[in-house]
């Protein structure tokens, strides 16, 4: 296990470095000029050159990359081209919106999808299982923003139960208003996530339930319920945890769209603002942090899978 942790830690560091580097260079080759965006269409060539010098864009790309890596190692994420504010402070200020949105959506979707996916697998030939599968298949085809608009129209505009969008200026200082403003976005992301997650869980559960050891346990006299609990759940956990890792990543990416539908000033809205204004420090730092967070979650999932299923460690030792 120690060897596995060391190896995965090295890969985590390597992947973080590679993704950060790819993000930096890809942004530099995309069309658009940050200096021209800031100075306006009527700016002269001299004005644009002065803006580039002020932003450090007149330097060689490798020099810019070296400066960015050096600043990153010192915990400095740079300054926004547009607002001149530290990007790190802006990200910290917006995280209390994006993280609760993503985490609550993920938890809600998991509580809905895992039981329903297992039920759909167990009763795959019954009306219940077929209905769950049909609803999840239809849900996958529905865009997240459309569900958000429908919820706003029904719950906010027609029933006046929850706000249509926005976030209180006091933030979580006004906790009741903050919770109310996140209810509809959370249900929107959870609904979209649940639709795809049910299908994955159903497929994973079906693969486990058709294994020989399940039939063997049933032939020894154990009840179907006991076999599914004792042998099924633990063996389902490994593929389901992989699926949950993917879906949690999707919840972070889905926040980009949903935050704009509900006018939430989170990381998603900040990222789109940076993309529109060619604000390189904002875009590259947010993408880098989201990627790093996804890699860390994947690292944790790998460790948990090895703890739950000893066969993974056994296969790793005997594959060398």
What does this entry look like structurally?
By secondary structure, this protein is mostly helical. Helices cover 79% and strands 0% of the residues. It has helices spanning 2-29, 34-39, 45-55, 61-73, 87-122, 127-140, 144-158, 175-209, 212-219, 224-261, 267-276, 280-308, 310-318. The longest helix has 38 residues, at 224-261.
What are its keywords?
single chain, 320 residues, mainly alpha, 79% helix, globular
Write the layout of secondary structure elements.
Blueprint: H1 2-29, H2 34-39, H3 45-55, H4 61-73, H5 87-122, H6 127-140, H7 144-158, H8 175-209, H9 212-219, H10 224-261, H11 267-276, H12 280-308, H13 310-318
| Distance between the ends | 15 Å
Q: What class, by secondary structure content?
A: mainly alpha
Largest sheet: none
What letter string, H or E per element, gives the SSE order?
A: HHHHHHHHHHHHH
Outline, from the CA principal axes?
A: globular
Helix content: over 70%
What's the β-strand tally? 0
Average pLDDT rating:
79
What is the count of helical runs? 13
Please compute the radius of gyration using only Cα atoms: 24 Å
Pick out the low-confidence regions. Answer: none
Task: Provide a brief overview of the structure.
By secondary structure, this protein is an all-alpha fold. 79% of the residues lie in helices and 0% in strands.
């Amino acid at each position: 296990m120690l060897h596995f942790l060391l190896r995965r830690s090295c890969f985590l560091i390597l992947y973080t470095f590679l993704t950060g580097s790819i993000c930096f260079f890809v942004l530099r080759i995309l069309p658009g000029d940050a200096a021209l965006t800031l100075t306006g269409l009527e700016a002269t060539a001299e004005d644009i050159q002065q803006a580039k010098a002020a932003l450090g864009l007149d330097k060689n790309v490798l020099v810019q990359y070296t400066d960015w890596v050096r600043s990153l190692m010192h915990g400095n994420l740079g300054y926004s081209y547009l607002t001149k504010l530290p990007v790190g402070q802006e990200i910290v200020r917006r995280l209390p919106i994006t993280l609760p949105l993503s985490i609550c959506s993920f938890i809600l979707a998991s509580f809905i999808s895992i039981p329903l996916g297992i039920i759909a697998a167990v009763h795959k030939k019954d009306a219940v299982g077929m209905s769950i599968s049909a609803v999840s298949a239809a849900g996958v085809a529905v865009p997240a923003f459309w569900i958000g608009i429908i919820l706003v129209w029904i719950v906010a505009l027609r029933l006046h139960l929850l706000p249509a969008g926005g976030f209180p200026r006091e933030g979580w200082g006004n906790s009741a208003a903050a919770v109310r403003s996140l209810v509809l976005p959370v249900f929107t992301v959870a609904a979209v996530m649940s639709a795809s997650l049910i299908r994955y869980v159903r497929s994973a559960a079906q693969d486990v339930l058709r294994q020989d050891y399940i039939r063997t346990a049933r032939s020894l006299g154990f009840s179907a319920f006991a076999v599914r609990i004792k042998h099924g759940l633990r063996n389902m956990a490994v593929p389901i945890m992989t699926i949950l890792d993917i879906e949690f990543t999707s919840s972070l990416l889905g926040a980009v769209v949903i935050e704009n539908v509900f006018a939430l000033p989170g990381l998603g809205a900040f990222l789109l603002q940076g993309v529109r204004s060619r604000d390189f420090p904002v875009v590259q730092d947010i993408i880098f942090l989201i990627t790093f967070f996804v890699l860390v979650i994947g690292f944790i999932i790998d460790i948990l899978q090895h703890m739950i299923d000893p066969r993974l460690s056994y296969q790793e030792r005997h594959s060398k």
